[in-house]
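W.,

You were right to be curious about this one. When I first looked at the sequence I had no strong expectations either way, so I just let the prediction run and decided to look at it fresh. Below is the sequence, 166 residues in total, followed by the output.
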Amino acid sequence: MYGTMRSSEIPDYSRRHQRVGWWSLVGFLVLGFVLEALHGLKVSWYLDAGMQPRRFMWTLAHAHGTLVALVNIAFALTLRTQPCADVWVRRASPCLVSASILLPGGFFLGGVSVHGGDPNPAVIVVPLAALVLICGAVFAALALGGARGETATRAPGATPGRGTLP
């Protein structure tokens, strides 16, 4: 019923989340730099009083995008160092990747066009994305506990004392 991951499958998920995490981190760090530049250059369509929802939404996109990028990197490292039940890893992975796009994307789109102090209706994606992220975190935690005590072997190349099974 509950299987374990073959060691050849673990690096695939790990590398996927390393790539998603690091490239997302780069993207959201650049977004943070752009937001700081908009402040420094005193760009009116970003700093005017009526644009406060835009600033808030884009700051939330930057912060949440950075956080979810780090969650993906942590998940990748976890897969390389800990035994994980495959059924939960297979559920956690798409949730975490989806949350990497949907959560900051919803905030960013919410700030693209602001009307009367309200964000764009696209911000409605955020609660769904938060739920997807929470599910991904729960599935990742369950993967560590192993379903019914079943776990997988660790990634090849891991050294003893640093995440390999005896």
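Here's what jumped out at me. The chain is about 70% helix and 0% strand. And, maybe more interesting for your project: The longest helix spans residues 10-40.

Coffee later to discuss?

I.
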